[in-house]
């Protein structure tokens, strides 16, 4: 397995590339969508979302991706994946709206550009509400600042305003709210998206990796969700036998689910060689109330999970995704260094056991 670090768009700096290398990473998973507005994943609710999404930005062009890859390689790193489209670039793919065809052509070009840059995977979250409803508080070990979810503290059925999708605004000053759709309709939209883009992904040498729903609820803000239980990942795999049809295996989101367990999920999906890359993060609790915690402080036995991934021959990239911050002069970096150090130690221990 390959140790990696996830970097949001505003973190694609020389300092953070050097930080990743110094922490023992060989790979990066990068975000080019400009959410979080220079903040780490912040709390969102019916009044606050991830901000204004931007469309057709130059950062998605091949020369930009190639330049980023070359910069990473100058630090001894490889960009393995890009995570998430900009909501402004695919809102009508998610909504089956009038701009769908034009947006699909742009998404295909993005995938082709990733292939030209040697980027092996593209993570996506096919969701109308997106990642929504989390809070940030000092509830981690020792008062660490981290993300949590408590359904009793938010209006779960707060409708999605027109002009908003995936927890971001793509068109301002719209009136009214999104009309509800059925689960079958959302699955049909995913199927159509994959049937059209997987051939392009295959010929580009890029995997499409679906991120599960976080929070993993059957419905949110009046809209259905796709993968809110571990077994539902199989429905995505069964849409297409294409080798490009893969999973962004978020261990935190799967652990937050009420069915099954993370170890059976690893066996099921690593056993089918369907995991593209892994969000290696831990949580305490499950929906409707859970807390993201340090990698060694949660409900998942992480060494057991890594040993199982090794047993099934998973050789992809694992990243901390997000982790509680450590109270000091560099909270995010300290939290990531802690997680990466832990992951690297367990990986080295496994390698020694196998040698
Ligand atoms: O587990 C999660 O919720 C994270 O991975 C997301 O915060 C992240 O934004 C993903 O990119 C969602 O696709």
Automatic annotation (TrEMBL):
Write one Gene Ontology MF term: ferrous iron binding
The biological pathway it contributes to is:
Carbohydrate metabolism; pentose and glucuronate interconversion
Q: Does the keyword Manganese apply?
A: yes
The reply on keyword Manganese is yes
Which reactions does this protein catalyse? D-mannonate = 2-dehydro-3-deoxy-D-gluconate + H2O
Function as written in the Swiss-Prot or TrEMBL entry? Catalyzes the dehydration of D-mannonate.
The family note in this entry says: Belongs to the mannonate dehydratase family.
- Please state what the protein is called: mannonate dehydratase
């Amino acid at each position: 397995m390959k140790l990696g670090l996830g970097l949001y768009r505003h973190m694609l700096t020389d300092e953070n590339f050097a930080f990743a290398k110094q922490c023992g990473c060989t790979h990066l998973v990068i975000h080019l969508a400009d959410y979080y507005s220079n903040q780490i994943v912040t709390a969102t609710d019916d009044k606050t979302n991830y901000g204004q999404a931007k469309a057709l930005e130059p950062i998605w062009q091949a020369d930009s991706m190639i330049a980023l890859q070359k910069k990473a390689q100058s630090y001894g790193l490889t960009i393995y994946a890009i995570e998430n489209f900009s909501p402004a670039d695919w809102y009508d793919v998610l909504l089956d709206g009038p701009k769908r065809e034009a947006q699909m052509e742009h998404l295909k070009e993005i995938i082709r550009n990733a292939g030209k840059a040697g980027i092996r995977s593209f993570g996506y979250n096919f969701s109308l509400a997106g990642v929504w409803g989390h809070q940030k508080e000092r509830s981690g070990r020792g008062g660490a600042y981290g993300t949590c979810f408590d359904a009793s503290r938010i209006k779960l059925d707060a409708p999605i305003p027109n002009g908003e999708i995936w927890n971001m605004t793509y068109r301002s000053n719209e009136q009214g709210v999104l009309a509800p759709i059925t689960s079958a309709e959302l699955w049909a939209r995913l199927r159509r998206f994959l049937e059209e883009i997987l051939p392009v992904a295959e010929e580009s040498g890029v995997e499409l990796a679906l991120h599960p729903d976080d929070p993993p609820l059957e419905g949110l803000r009046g809209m259905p969700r796709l993968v809110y239980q571990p077994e539902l990942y199989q429905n995505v795999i069964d849409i297409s036998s294409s080798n490009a049809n893969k999973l962004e295996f978020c261990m935190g989101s799967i652990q937050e689910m009420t069915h099954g367990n993370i170890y059976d999920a690893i066996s099921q999906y690593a056993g089918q060689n369907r995991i593209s890359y892994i969000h290696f993060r831990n949580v305490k609790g499950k929906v409707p109330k859970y807390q993201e915690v340090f990698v060694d402080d949660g409900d998942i036995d992480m060494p057991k999970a890594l040993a199982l991934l090794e047993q099934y021959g998973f050789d992809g990239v694992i990243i901390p995704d997000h982790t509680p911050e450590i109270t000091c002069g560099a909270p995010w970096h300290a939290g990531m260094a802690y997680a990466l150090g832990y992951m690297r130690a367990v990986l080295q221990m496994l390698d020694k056991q196998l040698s």
